[in-house]
Amino acid sequence: MPESREETLFVNSRHRVARRLVALGAALAVLATSACSPSTPEKPAESGQLTPDEAKAIALDAYVYGYSLVTVEMTRRVMTNVEKVDGPRAPMGQLMRMREYPDAQFRDVTAPNADTLYTNGFVDVKDEPWVLSLPDAHDRYYLFPMLDGYTNVFEVPGKRTTGTGPQTYAITGPGWKGTLPAGVTEYKSPTSTVWLLGRIYCTGTPEDYAAVHKMQDEISLVPLSSYGKPYTPPAGKIDPAIDMKTPVRDQVNNLSTEAYFDLMAALMKDNPPTEADRPIVDKMAKLGIVPGGKFDIDKLGSDIATALQSVPKEGVEKILARFKELDDINGWRFTTQTGQYGTDYL
Q1: Which residues form a coiled coil (predicted)?
Q2: Neighbouring residues of 220: CB distance < 8 A, sequence distance ≥ 6
Q3: Does residue 120 contact residue 140 with C-beta atoms inside 8 Å?
Q4: Which tens digit of pLDDT belongs to each residue from 53-85?
Q5: How far apart are CA 157 and CA 64, in angstroms?
Q6: Which of 51, 173, 175, 301 has a CA 20 to 30 Å removed from the CA of 244?
Q7: Backbone angles phi, psi at 31, to 5 degrees
Q8: 87 in the Ramachandran plot: left (φ > 0), alpha (ψ -120 to 50) or beta?
């Protein structure tokens, strides 16, 4: 069974509510190869066919649908914007290995575990698969969830699911076909973006830290073309335009309507919706939000453009409203309906 929806989408450290904000599958992979094709996007309807209220209703649904996809992308940008592994960050295609429990100042994701050491990374499987090799964990509890671009957990190797012996997986992207080396198991991601969120149990003693560090160092991640060969990962490229100070959630929530939907549409090209998402995809197309397309709010007319300006604020409010539906138990709100979200976009 897949594990929890990951930490960036919790409301806060006291009120944690995992919400299914997008139906594509991850954030990080529920999209099957039968996903809606971005090569034939529907044309937006003429602005006269929608009233401002109708357009706004569609836009609010679209905002909720795309929230996890946009959040994963903004998280990826921040956590990979380094030349080399640096604390909790690592370039694309490389693993960061946290050597201690996160302290109270850790802000890259909210509500991190307090009894595991993280081994995380982002890969793009659009061009070729990536191979993750896990060593013998010697019966130690660990899990290595693999999230798609919408935070759906598409696979989660670990003690409870696959055991603690050595194991090797090739993470393949949408539509990939090929032959894998002997002993390598294929895990299909429905999106090109994949977020690896490994966690290894640790007691926190110096001796156990050393044992977990050894296990972390034995975990490898390489492109399929380099599997079984000496491999030195290339240095990452720093993008000075990426905001490394503002929390990811605030960066997402502060995006304008046009910036949000333009980014969302671009991401949907390589992180395609599933066939089950077609109803919302068809509705979004009426506003010109199509996979791989350019969103231009001005083409909708001034009345609709004005009506859509409040969508980010109201969209966030709609997402947070789900939190109020959960029972409050001793000041905590939590849901176990996590991991696979289907078309429950909240």
Answers
A1: none
A2: 131, 132, 133
A3: no
A4: 999 999 999 999 999 999 999 999 999 999 999
A5: 29
A6: 173
A7: -80, 125
A8: left
Rounded Cα gap, residues 277 and 21, in angstroms: 13
Would you say the C-alpha torsion 179, 221, 128, 270 has a positive or negative sign?
positive
Q: Choose between 25 and 140: higher pLDDT.
A: 140
d(CA 110, CA 7): 5
Residue-by-residue DSSP string for 117-162: EEEEEEEE-SSS-EEEEE---TT--EE--EE-TTS-EEE--BHHHH
Amino acid code (one letter) for 151: T
Q: List the domains of the chain with CATH numbers.
A: 29-76+245-316 (1.10.3360), 79-226 (2.60.40.1610)
Structure tokens at 214: 């050894």
pLDDT value at 9 more than 90:
no
The identity of residue 304, as a single letter, is: I
